[in-house]
TrEMBL record:
This is Cation acetate symporter. PANTHER family: NA(+):SOLUTE SYMPORTER (SSF FAMILY), SODIUM/PROLINE SYMPORTER-RELATED. The keyword DNA damage does not apply. The keyword Zinc does not apply. GO terms for biological process: carboxylic acid transport; sodium ion transport. InterPro entries: Na/Glc_symporter_sf (IPR038377), Na/solute_symporter (IPR001734), Na/solute_symporter_CS (IPR018212), Na/solute_symporter_VC_2705 (IPR019899), Sodium:Solute_Symporter (IPR050277). Belongs to the sodium:solute symporter (SSF) (TC 2.A.21) family. It is found in: Membrane. Pfam families: SSF.
Length: 649
């Protein structure tokens, strides 16, 4: 059976299960649509939360960014620390208290706690901005996965994924999504773990990838990470295990991911689905267990993917020095069945290899800075010449190309790699001209030549991860619009049937917008998701914390804090990523040397959160305190009824 057919069968079976569950668990009331009737067992809710949480960013992109990050794997471990640490904050500081409050949505809590329809409306705006930003990454992951394994374009894959989400999310609401996510968790964790075990056995002889990461590389007999460092540094890349050059940015980024996790609306609403307050805390604990099953494997997956890729491009690197032998040839790529994965991924547009110097080989290395800049300038000069009208005076453009070529040749004659200049080697630049982070996990089983059923399983797992989170986000958006905006502000007397219809219509529009934005994302999946975390960290998390733990913060303070956090963080992000993520509208170059104090757009959420807290407390201190009944509400959320006062012994 060919790989394409196998992919169709495995993915088709899993989709049939998801849609079947959605039909079986179709929501018949607003309580079921928003909170699954508050009857989900904490273990099942923990599993569903794990699926809701482990999105395309976790499954597809996280190991890819760890594998390919120019700064090395250590710096990118912030994703692991931030995303898992956030669940500890969520379990301890938010989940049980919000469940005790007993409402359906985060904006509803904010509106009641801060006795303000304006605060609730602002929370709706924040939630929609966060969720739409987050869902862009999921839709990109869906498109990448469908595009590769159904052998269609990424855009067409995105359309198919949107249609699947529409069927089970619009039908089932939270009830259908919850039980679908339980099935999706089972699929994604199996799909992630099995290839990792196979590859760990191949490279290190260890059954557990977590131990293989610190084990011995079988082919060379050296420690695995030592071998990986040796291979990548030989090719001009930074050592894989090297420390970060900007510790402040890494700390802020980790904090942004942590508090952003605890403030994500689509995660928080999962804790409204359990019967009791104690179940909310238990659910968070189980979710952390289920998440750890994947997150402890991810560093090994990223590291082993990087080594497998590099030794594929430089066959001699597996047992010796990469540059002591030839690079992979274009002829081998086009004819060797074991390298068919390269040809397949080239069709998706996520991988591009170009024989720039015409020697028949594909040299994969890190271009030194001078050569990289010279090649970029030469490409721009050639593009300008090609775009010139045929009847135009091309003298100046041709002179610019000649000048850029001379400067590039000078850089090649100066820059060295492995003791020789690039000119002596006959190289003109890195010939792997595009290598997308989002393809690494999906391509990993193919690079390692694993069986076809494993490749098909990875496809099903990646789709499960992306679709489960997309559904949760879309539900958060639709509930904010139907329950908090329409019922809470526009039409408080709307019937339950009308509200349910409004929720489904809102979700339909949300799917359409998410699909459109997913066609032109502002980055790869993990980057886009990290932006959403920054927005959540700067807006939702502070107001929830102050709402639960401070009786003094009033509605004026909450509104001021959310506005400051939202405006500051979104403007900083848009300045570098483009206004509303529209390509080409950024005001500043998205490069580290242009960041204020070295703080990237991915890390700015922590600063936004600090400004949110400060603004809320300053404004609250100069305005009237909350009404007495609101202060009693805060007290009742934190202290169990009937507990009594502390007694000295």
């Amino acid at each position: 059976m060919d790989q394409f057919t196998l992919n169709l069968i495995v993915v088709g079976i899993t989709f049939a299960i998801y849609i079947g569950i959605a039909i079986w668990a179709r929501a018949g009331s607003t309580a079921e649509f928003y909170a699954a009737g508050q009857g989900v067992h904490p273990v099942l809710n923990g599993m569903a939360t794990g699926a809701d949480w482990m999105s395309a960013a976790s499954f597809i992109s996280m190991a890819g960014i760890i594998a390919l990050a120019p700064a090395g794997g250590y710096e990118q471990s912030a994703y692991l620390m931030g995303w898992t640490g956030g669940y500890v904050l969520l379990a301890l500081l938010l989940a049980p208290y919000l469940r005790k409050f007993g409402k359906f949505t985060v904006p509803e809590f904010i509106g009641d706690r801060f006795y303000s329809g304006g605060a609730r409306l602002l929370a709706v705006i924040c939630l929609i901005v966060i969720s739409v930003t987050y869902v862009i990454g999921q839709m990109r992951g869906v498109g990448v996965t469908f595009g590769r394994f159904l052998e269609i374009s990424t855009d067409m894959g995105l359309y198919i994924g949107a249609a699947i989400v529409f069927v089970y999310a619009v039908l089932g609401g939270m009830k259908g999504i919850t039980y679908t996510q339980v099935a999706q968790y089972v699929v994604l964790i199996i799909a992630y773990t099995i290839p990792a075990i196979f590859i760990s056995l191949q490279l290190t002889g260890s059954f557990l990838p977590q131990f293989g990461l610190t084990g011995t590389h079988v082919a060379s007999g050296t420690e695995f990470l030592v071998k990986l460092d040796q291979v990548v540094t030989e090719l001009g890349f930074r050592a894989y295990t090297s420390e970060t050059a900007n510790m402040l940015n890494m700390i802020l980024f980790t904090m942004s991911l942590m508090i952003g996790t605890a403030g994500l609306p689509h995660v928080i609403i999962r804790f409204f689905t359990v019967p009791k307050v104690a179940d909310a805390r238990s659910s968070a604990g189980w979710a952390l267990v289920f998440i750890a099953l994947l997150y402890t494997v991810a560093p090994a997956v990223g590291s082993m993917a990087r080594l497998n890729l590099t030794t594929t491009m430089w066959p001699n690197a597996a047992t010796g020095n990469a540059l002591d032998g030839p690079a992979i040839t274009r002829e081998a790529i086009d004819s060797n069945p074991e390298l068919s994965w390269i040809r397949t991924w080239e069709k998706t547009g996520l991988l591009t290899m170009t024989d720039l110097n015409g020697d028949g080989q594909i040299q994969y290395f890190n271009e030194p800075a001078a050569t990289a800049a010279a090649n970029k300038a030469l490409a721009a000069a050639n593009a300008a010449l090609a775009a010139a009208p045929a009847d135009a005076d091309r003298t100046a453009l041709e002179a610019a190309v000649a000048d850029a070529t001379a400067k590039r040749d000078a850089a090649l004659a100066t820059d060295t790699l492995g003791g020789q200049t690039l000119a002596e080697r006959g190289w003109v630049g890195n010939e792997v001209t595009k290598l997308d982070n989002d393809m690494m996990v999906l391509a990993n089983p193919e690079i390692a030549a694993l069986p076809g059923w494993v490749i098909a399983l990875v496809a099903a797992g990646a789709l499960a991860a992306a679709l489960s989170t997309a559904a949760g986000l879309l539900l958060a958006i639709s509930s904010a619009i139907s329950h908090d905006l329409i019922k809470g502000s526009i039409n408080p007397n709307i019937s339950e049937k009308g509200e349910l219809l409004a929720a489904r219509i809102a979700m339909t529009f949300a799917i359409a917008i998410a699909t459109w934005l997913g066609l032109n994302p502002p980055g790869f999946a993990a980057q886009v998701v990290a932006l959403a975390f920054g927005l959540a960290a700067a807006t939702i998390f502070p107001v929830l914390m102050m709402g639960i733990f401070s009786k003094r913060v009033n509605k004026q303070g909450a509104i001021a804090g959310m506005l400051v956090g939202l405006i500051f963080t979104s403007v900083y992000i848009f300045a570098y990523k483009g206004w509303f993520f529209v390509p080409g509208t950024n005001m500043l170059p998205d490069t580290p040397d242009q960041y204020f104090f070295g703080i990237s757009p991915l890390s700015i959420g922590t600063v936004g959160a600090i400004l949110n807290f400060a603004s809320a407390y300053i404004v609250s201190s100069v305005t009237a305190p909350p009404p007495h009944h609101v202060q009693e509400l805060v007290e009742s959320i934190r202290v169990p009824r009937g507990a009594g006062t502390a007694v000295a012994h």
